[in-house]
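Listing S7. Sequence submitted for prediction.
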Amino acid sequence: QVQLVESGGGLVQAGGSLRLSCAASGLTFSSYHMAWFRQAPGKEREFVSAIQRNGDSTYYAVAVKGRFTISRDNAKNTVNLQMNSLKPEDTAVYYCAAAQFWTGSYQHTRQYGYWGQGTQVTVSS
C-alpha cells in the first residue's frame, strides 16, 4: 500500500532552520505531484508548497515564499522542504501529500489522494 512518511520536525527558535523529508513507497513516485501542507491547532489545513512530477515547477504559499524551498529526488522517492528564517506562526503539523493529477488548484487538499501522518514543527519566539 501507499505510504508517505514524514521526518525532520522538531523544536527550533525563531530565525532557525529545519529540513523536512517525506519518504514515499507503494507508488510510482515520479508519476505523482507532491506537496506539503500544514495545520495549526484550531485552524484548517493549508497549502505550503508543491512540486511537479519532474521537479521542473515549484509553487509556494505567499506566507513562506522566499523562506522555504521544496525539492524532490525521484531516484530516492523523497520530497524535502527546507525551511529557513522560521517564525512562530510556522508552528504546525506538516503533512506530505501526493497527487497523480491536478484537476484544479494544487492548493486544494482534495487534489491529493495520499497523505502522510504528519510531523510537528514548533517555532519558539
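Caption to Listing S7: primary sequence and predicted C-alpha cells for the chain studied. The longest strand covers residues 18-25. The two ends are 40 Å apart (CA to CA).
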